[in-house]
């Protein structure tokens, strides 16, 4: 055996003492702060939340090893009922005396536990309780590190408005969580003139038979737009039964809120298969390397801890759980909590566990520090406003195949956006609707169990361009055509909803009906049929029984009468276009123009000379030949030329007026009716046809 020198032994003992001392100092410096966590171990989401909390603690203190505090998370199983959650919270507050509680999962559980937080001044921090009923005014120690359900109402309303649906039915869970958002949703829909004719409430633990009865009630209603707000487990059952009842076919619209859309990837293949064509709204979380690394770590941790269980894909709730742990760890470090827990017992004679719960003196300080905490978390910017996480950016998804596809985005600032840069865009990507349809549903339809609209049409002789009824003697099918029918079909097609209807021929046996049009119109009033379409005149007595549409053809009474023959047989008809006085003036103007030109030209122009007889002929025919454009004599004097120009202008105007008047006499004036007023017929007692 080798001996150790005394000097070396002394150095060795000194080193051991220093190491032990430093460890004791380090242990003493790093104070442990007890924090509770309420998780539902009966669901995969609870196990995923526990794994996310563990990973968050490891990552935080690996990055902040110099912090003087360490969180010790005490996990309790709150199951799925409110009593278990309250009992677990009391255990943490009474026996562990935790400084804060993370959880619980549901809004109904959070309502009970938040009351305990108010009583003990312990912050209750839930990353999954989203109901607006959890008001900060009534529960000041309740913090929500997730978004409020009411924040997505704007995105849902924008979708309804974008596709022009005028009615929508909320389908929601009968719980504080399910009912909390509905008043906000209904108010928002009414602002865009979308009616809510019915509210479908389904109990959280409804049986399959109860679900079927409620779905059949919805099926018999005309509205085809349903907005589903409930927990994902109940939603999976709803869509499965809806598929069995043929309510996931063409014409139906299903919109899901973020409580379902957030967990689409983990909802299960059977549920996804029954949700084809569904539109979902959920907060937009940008994909980053941090999220990818966290997802790998979470999957690995879940497989190690639950090797025999088929675990779901990670969701945004695990991201919020991760950020919640970081926020609490930062606040605890800054709170400088005392080594000894400062609790004050409540004074009173109440002997129950609730009555004996003490009040934490440092709870308010820790609460305020959590509210002031802000950092870039794994799920985005972490900052609580009004005691809850804020989100103004939402992603719109369409369930297709085994997962979903992005349709676009919506923000409170710009509305719809086609890219994550949130540049305003009014166009969403094409939607695959239920039944694998690409045609946008009208949102309204007469249910299959309802009756069709019966439209009466007249079977009459004559004027079949308006209404023509043909019957196939082989198939006994009736075909109705005509202008009135085309007009009615076009109106029905333009409606924003589908209305099935059928034409009913008003006939006597196989021949035309003996009913008058007034009697046919009164058939609507007597409820023999629902409407009447045909070449029907709007008159006062008919308007007493039915409402008419606006006229779509020119109305009024037109008369077809013979023309009056005003043709003249006189040989002097060519003189009729001009009055006698005008003819006389023209003759005088002829002579005057010739005389003026002769007077100016005869002294210097040999063509106007000659004997008196020749000069008289020149005066008489000069104006006439000039009028015809073939003047015989050539004028030399400028004054003569001026007189000739004026004469030709007058002659041209007279010729145009004469031609127009003669044409009118020979055509238009001959087309005069023999009767121009219906009163003339009444006075004469003439027979008429119609």
Automatic annotation (TrEMBL):
UniProt GO MF annotations: ligand-gated monoatomic ion channel activity
Gene Ontology cellular component list: membrane
Q: Provide the membrane topology annotation.
A: Multi-pass membrane protein
- One of this protein's Pfam families, by short name? ANF_receptor
Listed A to Z, the keywords are: Glycoprotein, Ion channel, Ion transport, Ligand-gated ion channel, Membrane, Receptor, Transmembrane, Transmembrane helix, Transport
Gene3D superfamilies from the UniProt entry: 1.10.287.70, 3.40.50.2300, Periplasmic binding protein-like II
Instruction: Identify the residues that the record assigns to the Ionotropic glutamate receptor C-terminal domain, covering every copy.
Output: 452-689
**Function, as annotated:** Glutamate-gated receptor that probably acts as a non-selective cation channel. May be involved in light-signal transduction and calcium homeostasis via the regulation of calcium influx into cells.
Give the quaternary structure.
May form heteromers.
Q: What is this protein called?
A: Glutamate receptor 2.2
Annotated organism of origin: Rhynchospora pubera
Lineage at the top is: Eukaryota, Viridiplantae, Streptophyta, Embryophyta, Tracheophyta
């Amino acid at each position: 055996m080798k001996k150790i020198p005394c000097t070396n032994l002394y150095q060795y003992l000194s080193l051991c003492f220093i190491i032990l001392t430093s460890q004791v100092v380090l242990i003493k410096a790093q104070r442990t702060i007890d924090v509770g966590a309420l998780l539902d171990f009966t669901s995969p989401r609870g196990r995923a939340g526990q794994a996310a909390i563990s990973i968050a603690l490891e990552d935080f203190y690996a990055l902040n090893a110099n912090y003087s505090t360490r969180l010790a998370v005490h996990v309790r199983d709150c199951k799925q009922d409110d009593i278990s959650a309250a009992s677990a919270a009391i255990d943490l507050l009474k026996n562990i005396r935790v400084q804060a509680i993370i959880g619980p999962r549901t809004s109904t559980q959070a309502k009970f536990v938040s009351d305990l937080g108010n009583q003990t001044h312990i912050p209750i921090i839930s990353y999954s309780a989203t109901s607006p009923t959890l008001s900060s005014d009534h529960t000041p120690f309740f913090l929500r590190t997730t978004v409020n359900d009411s924040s997505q109402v704007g995105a849902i309303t924008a979708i309804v408005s974008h596709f022009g649906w005028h009615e929508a039915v909320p389908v929601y869970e009968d719980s504080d969580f399910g009912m909390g958002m509905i008043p906000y949703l209904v108010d928002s829909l009414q602002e865009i003139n979308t009616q809510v004719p019915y509210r479908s409430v389904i109990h959280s633990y409804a049986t399959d038979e109860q679900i079927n009865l409620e779905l059949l009630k919805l099926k018999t209603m005309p509205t085809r737009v349903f907005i589903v707000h409930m927990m994902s487990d109940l939603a999976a059952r709803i869509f499965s039964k809806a598929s069995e009842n043929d309510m996931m076919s063409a014409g139906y619209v299903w919109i899901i809120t973020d409580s379902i859309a957030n967990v689409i990837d983990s909802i299960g293949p059977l549920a996804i298969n029954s949700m084809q064509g569904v539109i979902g709204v959920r907060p937009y979380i940008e994909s980053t390397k941090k999220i990818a690394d966290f997802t790998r770590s979470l999957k690995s941790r879940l497989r190690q801890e639950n090797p025999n269980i088929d675990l779901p894909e990670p969701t945004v709730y695990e991201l919020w759980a991760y950020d919640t742990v970081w926020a609490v760890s930062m606040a605890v470090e800054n709170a400088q909590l005392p080594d000894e827990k400062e609790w004050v017992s409540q004074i009173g004679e109440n002997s129950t566990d609730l009555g004996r719960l003490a009040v934490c003196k440092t709870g308010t300080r820790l609460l305020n520090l959590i509210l002031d905490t802000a950092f870039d978390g794994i799920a985005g910017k972490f900052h609580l406003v009004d005691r809850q996480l804020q989100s103004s950016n939402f992603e719109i998804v369409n369930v297709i195949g085994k997962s979903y596809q992005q349709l676009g985005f919506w923000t409170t600032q710009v509305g719809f956006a086609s890219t994550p840069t949130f540049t305003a865009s009014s166009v969403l990507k094409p939607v695959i609707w239920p039944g694998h349809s690409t045609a946008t549903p009208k949102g309204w339809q007469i249910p299959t169990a309802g009756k069709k609209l019966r439209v009466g049409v007249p079977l009459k002789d004559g004027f079949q361009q308006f209404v023509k009824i043909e019957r196939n003697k082989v198939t006994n099918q009736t075909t109705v055509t005509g202008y009135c029918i085309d007009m009615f079909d076009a109106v029905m097609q333009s409606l924003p909803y589908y209305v099935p209807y059928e034409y009913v021929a008003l006939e006597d046996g196989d021949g035309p009906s003996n009913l008058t049009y007034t009697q046919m119109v009164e058939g609507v009033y007597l409820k023999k049929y629902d409407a009447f379409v045909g070449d029907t005149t709007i008159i006062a007595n008919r308007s007493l029984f039915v409402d008419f549409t606006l006229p779509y053809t020119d109305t009024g009474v037109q008369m077809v009468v013979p023309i009056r023959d005003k043709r003249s047989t006189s040989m002097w008809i060519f003189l009729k276009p001009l009055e006698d006085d005008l003819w006389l003036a023209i003759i005088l103007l002829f002579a005057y123009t010739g005389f003026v030109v002769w007077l100016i030209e005869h002294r210097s122009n040999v063509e106007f000379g000659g004997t008196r007889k020749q000069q008289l002929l020149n005066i008489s025919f000069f104006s006439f030949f000039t009028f015809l454009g073939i003047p015989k004599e050539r004028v030399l004097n400028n004054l003569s030329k001026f007189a000739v120009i004026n004469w030709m202008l007058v002659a041209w105007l007279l010729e145009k007026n004469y031609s127009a008047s003669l044409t009118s006499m020979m055509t238009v004036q001959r087309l005069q009716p023999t009767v121009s007023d219906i009163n003339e017929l009444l006075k004469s007692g003439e027979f008429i046809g119609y």
